[in-house]
Each structure stands twice: as structure tokens, then as C-alpha cells.
TrEMBL record:
Signal peptide: none annotated. It comes from the Eukaryota. This is Biogenesis of lysosome-related organelles complex 1 subunit 7. One of its GO terms (cellular component) is synaptic vesicle. It comes from Mustela putorius furo. Keywords: Coiled coil.
Length: 72
């Protein structure tokens, strides 16, 4: 699209370096976005596991059942 604009304006300006920089920046942004999405998914699963374990332990405490080897 930038090349088309350049041709329409009839200006002797080489946009290739700028296009390459933009594409490189876009690639890096996509990479970081992917990393952040993966980290967010891992945190979501970890939070779910912690909530599940907390509920399990709370239920054990409420029922008075303690696992073997736990201090009572």
C-alpha cells in the first residue's frame, strides 16, 4: 500500500527500508503477543489449579478429615 502511494505521488522516495522496518516491527509484535497469550493461558490454568486445591483443603478442614502425616 505504501508503494502504491509512493507511485501515486511521483516522489523520488525509496520506501523499501521503511516497509522492511514496519514488517520487522510487526513480526516482533506478533511474537510478543503470542508469548503473552501463552503466559496468560498458563496463569489461568495455574489459578484454576490453586482454586481447586484451596477448595479441596477447605472441604477437608470443614469435615475434620486430615491427610496422614499432616500436623493436627
Amino acid at each position: 500500500e505504501l508503494c502504491r502511494i509512493n507511485e501515486d505521488q511521483k516522489v523520488a522516495l525509496d520506501l523499501d527500508p521503511y516497509v522492511k522496518k514496519l514488517l520487522n516491527a510487526r513480526r516482533r509484535v506478533v511474537l510478543v503477543n503470542n508469548i503473552l497469550q501463552n503466559a496468560q493461558e498458563r496463569l489461568r490454568r495455574l489459578n484454576h489449579s490453586v482454586a481447586k486445591e484451596t477448595a479441596r483443603r477447605r472441604a477437608m478442614l470443614d469435615s475434620g478429615v486430615y491427610p496422614p502425616g499432616s500436623p493436627s
